[in-house]
Design goal:
By secondary structure, the chain is mostly helical. It has one domain. The chain contains six helices and no strands. The chain is about 75% helix and about 0% strand. Helix 1 runs antiparallel to helix 2, helix 1 packs across helix 6 and helix 4 crosses helix 6. This is Inner membrane protein YejM N-terminal domain-containing protein.
Length: about 160
């Protein structure tokens, strides 16, 4: 960021960018979570279907927001350099989405969620290593999203200042 910007303005900018970035990660998480629908058939009633979609939307949106509050928001105050902050955010969000992708595939195979406990309890239930290839793809997607949102946030901030 510009070195002439005050520290409080820089933090405000990072928080603004972080909210937008989290919104896009909620969308990515919801897209990955669509794969859970293969393991769980839709309910037979209209109310059941509505509940199914509302809980899907709320559950994954909440977890992304919680992830932001715990792993991203505090670092807006700790990490001094915006580039380092963005790299950290891209890495940590890509890691979380990769874990979700692995869990969704594990759940579709074994009808239980992936954890270290299940991995050691039943060593035959393994995940394929090719699922982990999603990590570099998510890094690229999150990097492009990050850059695009960074530029958009910069433009909006300049409009507000003028």
């Amino acid at each position: 960021m510009n070195k002439n910007i005050s520290h409080s303005n820089q933090i405000s900018f990072l928080i603004n960018w972080g909210h937008r970035y989290t919104a896009f990660n909620i969308i990515y998480s919801l897209l990955i979570a669509l794969l859970y629908f293969y393991a769980n058939p839709l309910p037979n009633t209209s109310i059941g279907i509505i509940y199914f979609f509302v809980s899907w939307l709320g559950y994954f949106s909440f977890f992304c927001f919680l992830f932001y509050i715990i792993f991203v928001f505090p670092f807006t105050f700790v990490i001094k350099y915006s580039r380092v902050f963005r790299i950290y955010t891209i890495f940590i969000s890509s890691l979380a989405l990769t874990f979700q992708f692995v869990d969704v595939n594990y759940f579709n195979l074994y009808k239980e969620h992936f954890s270290l406990f299940t991995m050691f309890q039943e060593p035959n239930n393994t995940i394929s290593i090719h699922y982990l290839l999603i990590f570099p793809i998510l890094i690229i997607i999150n990097t492009l999203t990050s850059q695009w949102l960074w530029n958009k946030t910069k433009i909006k901030t300049k409009k507000i200042e003028n």
